[in-house]
Give the backbone structure.
Amino acid sequence: MSTEFPDRLSLDPRSPYHDAELLERGVGIRFNGTERTNVQEYCISEGWIRVIAGKSLDRRGNPMTIKLKGTVEPYLDEPPAADAS
């Protein structure tokens, strides 16, 4: 399978940047050298991620997010393959 990541990816199924097949494979994000587990959306070319800001919700019931700028490195969260020999 290809390890090409889209420039922008979102967890929100209503977003045009949502890719369910890729998300099922497990995508991890390394932001400024540290692994982040609370990323809702990212953009590689613009260098930002959106993370949930606590337990607060907007007026439509969606979690509030904040945008952080820095170096974004997506990777696949696959377990190491066992040797067949």
About this structure: The longest helix spans residues 20-25. Residues 8-76 form one domain. The CA atoms of residues 42 and 49 lie 4 Å apart.
